[in-house]
Design brief:
Layout (H helix, E strand, L loop, with lengths): L2 E4 L11 E7 L3 E7 L3 E8 L3 E6 H4 L6 H8 L7 E5 L2 H9 L3 H5 L2 E6 L3 E7 L4 E6 L3
Antiparallel strand pairs: 1-6, 2-3, 3-4, 4-9, 5-8, 6-7, 7-8
Length: 134
């Protein structure tokens, strides 16, 4: 059964963020979240899989209703969650024919106002917070 856990609680300030996603062979996956006061840079490095879905279509049959409702009722006070036994990670493990178990993969979900981004990786992300001048 899918379980969500808040991670890096209190590290990313609550705000309405604009998203920029950068992904490539050299730098890996970088998610930049910008508000009028803060820029958050989440560096995942090289990831095994990623999917990005518009928030409007995502929260019905994609995730476990009970788990997502816990955080949705509180307007997603956190930005990043670790998902255990999630369907996306299971799909990636099936495609990889068990190789994901060897890598000890983790499944994260980044929730913004407009997008849900699932990331399957063997690494914990590095998070940088910068104040915006203005």
């Amino acid at each position: 059964m899918e379980r969500w856990k808040e991670v890096f609680v209190g590290k990313i300030p609550k705000a309405v963020y604009q998203l920029q996603l950068i992904n490539g062979e050299e730098q890996g996956l970088i998610i930049e979240l910008s508000s009028s006061h803060t820029c958050v840079i989440i560096k995942f490095g090289i990831v095994q899989a990623m999917r990005m879905l518009d928030e409007g279509i995502v929260q019905s049959d994609i995730y476990c209703d009970n788990e997502i409702q816990k955080y949705k009722d509180n307007n997603f006070q956190n930005v990043i969650y670790e998902v255990q036994d999630g369907e996306f990670e299971k799909q990636i493990n099936n495609i990889a024919d068990g190789y994901g178990d060897v890598l000890n993969l983790k499944h994260y979900v980044v929730i913004t106002q407009n997008y849900n981004i699932d990331i399957v990786t063997e690494w914990e992300p590095i998070i940088e917070i910068k104040n915006q001048l203005g």
